[in-house]
Amino acid sequence: HSVDNVCPASELADVLVHQVFIGTCTNGRLGDLEAAARILKGRTVKRGMRLIIAPASRAILLDAIDAGIMHQLIKSGAVVVSPGCGPCVGTHAGVPSDDETVLSTANRNFKGRMGNNKGVNIYLSSPETAAATAIRGTITDPREVM
Questions:
Q1: In a domain, 25, yes or no
Q2: Does residue 23 form part of some domain?
Q3: Phi, psi for residue 83 in degrees, rounded to 5
Q4: Three-state DSSP class for 47?
Q5: Phi/psi of residue 54, each to 5°?
Q6: What pLDDT, on a 0 to 100 scale, did the predictor assign at position 3?
Q7: Residue 75 is part of which domain span?
Q8: Could you give the 3-state DSSP secondary structure of residue 53?
């Protein structure tokens, strides 16, 4: 539970993930959403996986809709929540249970970050790794699904 604890995704390939979160102010830019949609194109999220998308702003949400990015994400099985903060700080939509593991593109992963749930394991990643993980259900290097 530290942003300084870094390793390649391949070293975590056996970590089962229950929820993937892409977005917020850190990785909710148009390019981030586009990168995730590119990985997910023609694929669906693993059965039982929750993939939550939160664009950084209303303007980005509208641009992503116009570009067809949101269509691709939703078609793949993502749920889109209101732009800005939310799941990353545990205020709504996607607050995990204590026994779950989350892969997030947010900028922090300390215990209790995604709600008052100290038992959640939160890993941080790029939007590409997050999308690949949503497909496989375990932490996945995106090059493995491209």
A1: yes
A2: yes
A3: -60, 150
A4: coil
A5: -130, 100
A6: 58
A7: 9-139
A8: strand
Give helix 30-40 / helix 58-66 axis angle, nearest 10°.
40
> Where residue 132 sits, what CATH number does that domain have?
3.30.499.10
Q: Is 1 a domain residue?
A: no
pTM as predicted: 0.86
Residue 110's pLDDT band (cuts 50, 70, 90): very low
User: Nearest CA to 10 among 133, 134, 135, 146?
Assistant: 133
pLDDT tens for each residue of 52-104? 999 999 999 999 999 999 999 999 999 999 886 655 554 556 655 578 888 88
The three-state secondary structure class of 100 is coil
Rounded-to-integer distance, Cα 35 and Cα 48, Å: 23
Domain-located, residue 4: no
Tokens of 65: 């809709």
Instruction: State the Cα torsion 42-45-46-49 to the nearest 10°.
Output: 180
Q: What's the number of domains the chain is made of?
A: 1
